[in-house]
Amino acid sequence: MLRFTQVGEVEIESLQRIGIFGGSFNPVHHAHLIVGDRFAEAMRLDRVFFIPAAVSPFKASDQSAATEGMARVAMLQLATKDNPLFAVDSWEVEREGVSFTITTIKQYVVKYPQADLFFLIGGDQALSFNRWKEWQSIAALAQLCIADRPGTVAPARWTQLLTSLSVQERQPERIRVPRLEISSTDIRHRLREGRSVRYLLPPAVEEYIRIHNLYRS
Question: Is residue 207 part of a domain?
Fold first, then answer.
C-alpha cells in the first residue's frame, strides 16, 4: 500500500525508539508540535510518527466537522517538514473506517520489530483510556505516555491514574508539557467566522487552509 511517509529499509533498522502520536489533527496547530517535541525529548525518541485518524471511535456518530483525511495529512506534512524527528503516517486515513489504536499499534509491531514503541495520549484521554478497545493490549505492546498538561488531571489523581493504567507491572510515563490554550475546535470556529488564526498554527498550514478554502462553511 502506498504510504504518505516512506521509510527505507536502512532507516527502519536505525529506529530503536519510536513514538506514536495519534489524533484528528483537524487542523494541526502549534500545541500539537510542541507536545510532539516534548514527547521526543522526554522519551529520547528516534522518530515521532503523527498519525491522523480516519474516524475516531468516540466521534463516529458526528463527523460533520471532519476535514477530508488526506487534507489533514497534507497539513501535517507541511507542519512537520522542518523537524527531522517528525514523520507523518497516513495508514489510518488510507484504510478508512473507524480508527482503532490497537490495530495501528499491531501494524507498528510488525513493521518495526526491532524498536521499542511509545504511545502518547493526553491527560483527558487517560481519564477514559480504559474504555478504549483492548486498552491493556495497547499498553502491553507500547509504553503508554501521558501528556501532563497543567489543569487537565488533578495533582492528587495522578498516582491513582498511573496505577490503574499499569499493565504487566509497567506504569505509564508522564510527559510534562506547557499549558497552551490552542485547540483545533477554536481554530475552526475562528476560520468560519473570518477571524485571524495567526500564531495559532504554522504559516504553511494557514496558507494551505486559505488556498483550499477549508473550514469556511
Answer: no
Per-position DSSP letters for 18-68, written without gaps between them: EEEEEE--TT--HHHHHHHHHHHHHHT-SEEEEEE-SB-TTSTT--TTPPP
Q: Give whole-number Cα distances, 192 to 65, 118, 157, 196, in Å.
A: 11, 36, 37, 10
The answer to the question of residue 133 being in a domain is yes
Stretch (H or E) spanning 117: strand 116-122
Render pLDDT for 97-147 as a digit per residue (tens, 0 to 9).
Answer: 787 999 999 999 999 999 999 999 999 999 999 999 999 999 999 999 999
Choose among 15, 87, 81, 82: nearest CA to 51: 87
Question: Is the residue at 188 inside a domain?
Answer: no
> Residue 120 gets which letter from DSSP?
E
The answer to whether residue 203 is domain-embedded is no
What is the CATH classification number for the domain harbouring 121?
Answer: 3.40.50.620
Whether 18 contacts 88, CB under 8 Å: no
The residues with which 174 forms a beta bridge, in sequence order, are 146
Pairing of strands 143-148, 173-176: parallel
Q: Is the pLDDT of residue 6 over 90?
A: no
Counting the structural domains of the chain, the total is: 1
Q: Which domain holds residue 62?
A: 14-183
pTM reported for the whole predicted model? 0.89
Quote the pLDDT of residue 2. Answer: 34
Would you call the peptide bond into 27 cis, given omega within 30 degrees of 0 as the criterion? yes
